[in-house]
Amino acid sequence: MRPKPVGATFALQRLLVLLRSNLTAMLLVLPAANYQPSDYLPILIQFGLALAFVAFAMIVSHLVGPKRNSTVKDASFECGIESVGNARTPISVKYFLTAIVFVLFDVEVIFMYPWAVNFRALGNDGFIAMILFMFFLLAGFAYIIKKGILRWNEA
Amino acid sequence: MTSIILLSIFGILNLFMGFMRSNKVLLPGAMLLLLAVFGANLADWNVVHAPYFNNMLVVDNYTVAFTGIVVLTTIVLLPFSRSYVVAGETNLAEYYALLLFSLVGAVMMIGYNHLIMLFVGIEILSISMYVLAGSSKRDSRSNEAALKYFLMGAFATGILLFGIALLYGATGTFVLSDLAGAVAAPENASLQPMLYIGILMMIIGIGFKVSAAPFHFWTPDVYEGTPTFFTAFMSTVVKTAGFAAFLKLLAVALPGAQGFWLPTIQAMCALTLLLGNVGAAVQTSTKRMLAYSSVSHAGYLLIGLVASRGNLTGDAASGIFFYSLAYSIATIAAFGVLKLVADHRQRDDYAALNGLGKTNPLLAFSMTVAMLSLAGIPLTGGFFGKFFLLAAAAGQGYIGLVVFAVIMSMVGLYYYLRPLIAMYLRPAEEGATPVPVDGIQTATLALLALLSIVLGIVPGFLSGIL
């Protein structure tokens, strides 16, 4: 026979049992009428624990942590390297263009998967539609290459 | 359908034409391509097509008629981009391509039979316009216009999408013709609040796109900042396509909810007429005046929606068609002259037009016809446009609205006559040189003035075609 649990261990076990029964109830999809307000108690406890942990971590780090202040230490983005200049400067538009090209091929693939899955069902119509789609896509790609988006050395 | 395919292919073609060494061929090229689209579109007149793409798109006479207006408008607009050709603008091919792509969106908005198609059409049209509004990259006004248009337009599109979702939730269908039955179906009666909120949100979304009050607040700033060439496109093509879509939505999908939307549209109509006309009267810039005037014309077109009472054919629908055509022709002429004058004299207030009657009689005449047509003076297309719409409204018994519209068009006279006073009665500045106009622009302005007058003398050949 198991020894009777005492104190904190007992409370934890009760909680686990409560959580498990609640999980079982959710998995079994019991009719809504079977729920009692008290069944939501574990959720409340969960909330309480989450909040308590945040408060605990903040207070302990405040009490235990070392306290050193200097201008570098208090800088906004302290990372060991002194920050230089303003972050709000113009950024080369080439980065955005590269991102857009990525989106282009990303979207292409999104359409390729359903086509591949339904290849037989879509038949010839699907094939022609995909060829057209690929044509327009590659026309766009040819256009941006011709516009010089991949020429990084020029201004 | 042919026009959508051709416009898409020609748009891509135009992009690649930009790689040619000279951009001289771009303008005539784009005009020829659009003429081909115009012809292909007219070939569909009175031809019965089965709906395309699982009932998402229909091509009937309604679609052909309004597509004709937007394509024709773009053709006569293009010559005024000559200054870009002369200045060697490097992005000209992209501008034309974006115009063609946004026309694809406009045609989809006109021919839609499925709410998703409406949404896709509006987006294709709007996103091109956001880019073109900011096309003058070094001009902070243009940047402002693009940002304002984009942020508010994206917001309005979101509201439209909410509306579509609620409408779908309340009826279970996206297809316009099925919606009509589902809206009136008794089993959906319990979902009526959802349906009404959905309709209201869709009215807000489309009302924003056609700049109907109280959703017009963006119009003056955006129209003023956008380069004049694209402002002209915005205030004609976007409005025509928007109203075609609006009428179709109310007439095909929602005649069963008339009791709900009729008072709403009536209130919007009166408010738009008031704010548009009074707003235009106090402007000092010609371009801003034209922006407010486009708001007021949205008001007149809303009268057509009220008078249609859920009919896609008949007096009111034909009136909207005729009005859109007359309005587009006059507006292109007005913006065209304004662009030529403003490019030359570097200002766009009323005083910029001073003495134009002496220095450039043709420009002044063209502007005069345009202003008279916009004001609705007899012997111009604008008069019959107003006449047909107001007659349709009076025929349905909306006498109060008609009287109000007539009073408001009196207010309109005040600000439409101000450019005429500047052109003919005020002397030009010392040493003012004539505004340079080349052959194709002269021909286009003459054609536009002629069209306005022809529509005002023999309106019969285009009235009542729907």
TrEMBL record, chain B:
This is NADH-quinone oxidoreductase subunit N. InterPro entries: NADH-Q_OxRdtase_suN/2, ND/Mrp_TM. Residues 113-410 form the NADH:quinone oxidoreductase/Mrp antiporter transmembrane domain. It is found in: Cell membrane; Endomembrane system; Membrane. NDH-1 is composed of 14 different subunits. Subunits NuoA, H, J, K, L, M, N constitute the membrane sector of the complex. HAMAP family: NDH1_NuoN_1. It catalyses: a quinone + NADH + 5 H(+)(in) = a quinol + NAD(+) + 4 H(+)(out). Belongs to the complex I subunit 2 family. It holds the Pfam family Proton_antipo_M. It comes from Hymenobacter jeongseonensis. Keywords: Cell membrane, Membrane, NAD, Quinone, Translocase, Transmembrane, Transmembrane helix, Transport. Its EC number is 7.1.1.-.
